[in-house]
């Protein structure tokens, strides 16, 4: 099946894409070069996900796709057809913040806030992955998210709090 | 970014036929390098062939006892696979030394091999570059060249291959399986990437229209006698200035066999069979490691900003061999180098 066109001589046309974004099924017709980050921000008005470097170097655009955190600036939307996407807007449930969102507030884990949605999405996935146990491991597995204000210490504190709370709850 | 048409391939045959029919086409999977290059107008494919739906995403036992990693297995899936962690911890360690968790979740095994150099001039279409535009010159040789090569360079190009994974695969003597218009073939990892010579625009021996289907690891077991030591300007999420992959077969304190590959120093993962032979049958001793390091770097050529890499590489080789011989591989989370 050729998705949306046949032959390289024809002009590219919009391609139908279905994504489940924060639990809601969204159907869009997108141009092949539309990047997932731009689709979220410009087509779905979900501007919580930030454009930092736009080159996969800063992590501000981190979202969770089919359970995996990725840089949404480095993915064509058409290639994610059928995927389940969670952005910062989808983390709170029934008006209650996600525990990591609350932990960021508790620990003052941001200053300007621009990297924060990416930090939190990345941290939520990190906690789900269950690999990071120590502060060194949290730092290493959060290294894809740059914070120019330098709030790293408090970011690690916030993530450590949630990992610790999950550990307590699991006993 | 240029405009392009998009094909979602549903079979390897379809993907190969579509690519062979259009020299301006590119395969795309993880996209973590290609999309970046397209955003900089370094790559301007007129057609993208999406191969992510092809059945190349499994890690399977290979005939003869090795392991076969499908081309679409992500870097994270490979690094965290229990069989790879158990039997090829060097590969797992090297992958975890590279990129970030987000990139490792997207980037694939095949794409990792095909990623292009991070040379600043290659990435900037406002400057000449023989790799990007053959015949325009190499500003890196006389410009900023801190991250550039010291081994196997040519007057036309001093770029490095940036992969960590490929360095481990070179040491493990992996084989790249490809399918193309003329059928299937297998390419030893060491023959997959090439030196720049007179044609730095050609990174690999893969032909247009050929697709990587799998990377196969031979059955050799090095146990705990391995390490991936990566030195860089910051401790995480940075390309190697110098990296060393080592795998040793130990017989008591004697080295029965050795594999060693360097990253960050050449246009391809750098193997030196003579240097490896100097270790065979020898006791694991620092003076022997130093002799091997000197041998491997004997033809190294430094440039204005990167001459430090020659000494750095020698010391890294000595340290990596010591780590591997002792069975104390470098941790990729505790960054202290023991």
Word description of this protein:
The complex is a heterodimer of chains A (171) and B (338). Chain A is α+β, with helices and mostly antiparallel strands. Chain A has 2 domains: 15-90, Roll (Ubiquitin-like (UB roll)); 99-165, DNA polymerase, domain 1 (Orthogonal Bundle), CATH 1.10.150. Helix content of chain A is 32%, strand content 15%. Chain A has helices at residues 36-43, 99-106, 116-129, 135-141, 152-169, and strands at residues 15-21, 24-30, 62-65, 68-71, 84-86. A 5-stranded mixed sheet of chain A has the order 2-1-5-3-4, with helices on both faces. The relative contact order of chain A is 0.14. Chain B has 12 helices and 13 strands. Chain B has helices at 12-21, 34-39, 75-80, 82-87, 89-96, 101-106, 109-114, 165-171, 189-192, 273-277, 286-296, 308-326; strands spanning 5-8, 25-28, 47-50, 59-61, 67-70, 175-180, 183-188, 211-217, 226-231, 242-251, 254-263, 270-271, 282-283. A 5-stranded antiparallel sheet of chain B has the order 4-5-8-6-7. In chain B, strands 9, 10, 11, 12 and 13 form a 5-stranded antiparallel sheet that branches. The radius of gyration of chain B is 19 Å and the shape is globular. Chain B starts with a strand and ends in a 12-residue tail after the last helix. The mean pLDDT of chain B is 97. The interface between A and B is large, with 44 and 39 residues.
Order of strands, main sheet of chain A, comes to 2-1-5-3-4
Strand arrangement, major sheet of chain B:
4-5-8-6-7
Q: For the residues shown, what is the average pLDDT of chain A?
A: 93
CATH C-level name of the largest domain in chain A: Alpha Beta
Helix % of chain B is 25-40%
Mean pLDDT of chain B, to the nearest integer, reads 97
Radius of gyration of chain A: 17 Å
Unreliable stretches of chain A (pLDDT < 50, length at least 5) are 1-9
Element-by-element helix/strand order of chain A: EEHEEEHHHH
DSSP strand count of chain A: 5
Major sheet summary line of chain B: 5 strands, antiparallel
């Amino acid at each position: 099946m050729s998705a949306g066109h046949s032959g390289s001589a024809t002009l590219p046309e919009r391609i139908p894409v279905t994504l489940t974004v924060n639990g809601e099924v969204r159907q869009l017709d997108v141009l092949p070069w539309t990047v997932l980050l731009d689709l979220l921000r410009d087509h779905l008005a979900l501007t919580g996900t930030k454009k930092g470097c736009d080159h996969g170097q800063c992590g501000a655009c981190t979202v969770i796709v089919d359970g995996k955190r990725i840089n949404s600036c480095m993915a064509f939307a058409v290639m994610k057809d059928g995927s389940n996407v969670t952005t910062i807007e989808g983390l709170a449930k029934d008006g209650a913040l996600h525990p990591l969102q609350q932990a960021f507030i508790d620990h003052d884990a941001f200053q300007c806030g621009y990297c924060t949605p990416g930090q939190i999405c990345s941290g939520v996935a990190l906690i789900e992955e269950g690999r990071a146990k120590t502060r060194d491991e949290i730092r290493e597995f959060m290294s894809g998210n740059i914070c120019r204000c330098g709030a790293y210490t408090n970011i690690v504190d916030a993530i450590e709090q949630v990992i610790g709370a999950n550990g307590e709850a699991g006993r | 970014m240029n405009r392009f048409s998009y094909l979602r391939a549903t079979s390897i045959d379809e993907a190969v036929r579509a690519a062979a029919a259009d020299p301006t086409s590119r395969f795309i999977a993880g996209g973590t390098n290609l999309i970046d290059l397209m955003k900089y107008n370094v790559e301007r494919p007129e057609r993208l062939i999406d191969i992510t739906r092809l059945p190349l995403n499994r890690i399977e036992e290979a005939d003869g006892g090795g392991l076969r990693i499908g081309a679409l297995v992500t870097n994270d899936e490979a690094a965290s696979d229990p069989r790879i962690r158990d039997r090829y911890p060097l590969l797992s360690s090297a992958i975890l030394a590279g990129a970030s968790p987000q990139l490792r979740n997207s980037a694939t095994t095949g794409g990792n091999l095909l990623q292009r150099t991070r040379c600043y001039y290659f990435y900037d279409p406002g400057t000449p570059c023989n790799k990007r535009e053959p015949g325009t010159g190499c500003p890196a040789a006389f410009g900023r060249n801190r991250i550039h090569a010291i081994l196997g360079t040519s007057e036309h190009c001093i770029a490095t291959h940036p992969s960590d994974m490929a360095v481990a695969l070179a040491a493990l003597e992996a084989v790249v399986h490809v399918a193309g218009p003329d059928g299937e073939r297998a390419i030893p990892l060491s023959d997959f990437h090439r030196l720049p010579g007179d044609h730095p625009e050609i990174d690999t021996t893969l032909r247009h229209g050929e697709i990587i289907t799998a990377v196969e690891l031979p059955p050799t077991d090095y146990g705990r006698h391995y390490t991936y030591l990566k030195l860089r300007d910051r401790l995480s999420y940075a390309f190697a200035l110098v990296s060393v992959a080592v795998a040793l077969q130990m017989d008591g304190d004697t080295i029965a066999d050795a594999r060693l590959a360097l990253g960050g120093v050449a246009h391809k993962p750098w193997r030196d069979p003579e240097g490896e032979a100097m270790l065979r049958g020898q006791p694991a001793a620092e003076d022997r490691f130093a002799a091997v390091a000197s041998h491997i770097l004997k033809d190294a050529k430094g440039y204005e900003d990167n001459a430090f890499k020659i000494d750095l590489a020698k010391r890294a080789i000595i340290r990596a061999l010591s780590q591997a011989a002792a069975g104390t591989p470098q941790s990729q989370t505790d960054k202290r180098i023991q």
